[in-house]
Amino acid sequence: MLSQLDFYAAKLAYEMDAADVWSALQAGEKLVLIDARAEEAFLKETLPGAVSVPHRTMDEASTAHLPRDAVLVSFCDGIGCNASTKGALKLARLGFNVRELQGGLDWWVRDGYATTARAGVSVSCAC
């Protein structure tokens, strides 16, 4: 059985919040923000520098352009959406180093970061 310490350590190894992503980008870490929602949602609003790869279409061909030496951060709308989890699972199965953005686009905005549709603190993505 997994201990509490192991559980929380594993959880933090595979999840990031908006501040974690912001700090990693500011530190120059190689992250690729993956919008796992449908293309229509991506076109309406997304994180600056994000790449649209809907989880429903993820396979070897649709992810061939993604770098293998970066951390892929899967995200969706927020806690009412599980596209980021489905995307993270598919990307991990394809052999990528993946993390999931907790709270998704909703908490990103709540924390004051810019999106393609809203002002806020700008993000430089090494995508």
Commentary on this structure:
The chain is of the alpha/beta class. The chain has a single domain (13-110), classed as Oxidized Rhodanese, domain 1. The protein has 5 helices and 5 strands. The protein has a 5-stranded parallel beta sheet. Strand 4, helix 4 and strand 5 (97-101) form a beta-alpha-beta unit.
CATH superfamily: Rhodanese-like domain
User: Which whole number gives the mean pLDDT?
Assistant: 93
Number of strands: 5
Shape: globular
Helix content: 25-40%
What would you say the CATH architecture is? 3-Layer(aba) Sandwich
What is the first-to-last residue Cα distance?
38 Å
Domain Rhodanese: 27-117
Organism: Chromobacterium rhizoryzae
Protein name: Rhodanese-like domain-containing protein
Keywords:
127 residues; alpha/beta; Oxidized Rhodanese, domain 1; five-stranded parallel sheet; 35% helix
Topology summary:
Layout: H1 4-14, E1 15-16, H2 18-26, E2 31-35, H3 39-44, E3 51-52, E4 71-75, H4 83-93, E5 97-101, H5 104-110
What's this model, at a glance?
This protein has helices at 4-14, 18-26, 39-44, 83-93, 104-110, and strands spanning 15-16, 31-35, 51-52, 71-75, 97-101. It is α/β, with parallel strands linked by helices and 127 residues long. Strand 4 (71-75), helix 4 and strand 5 (97-101) form a beta-alpha-beta unit.
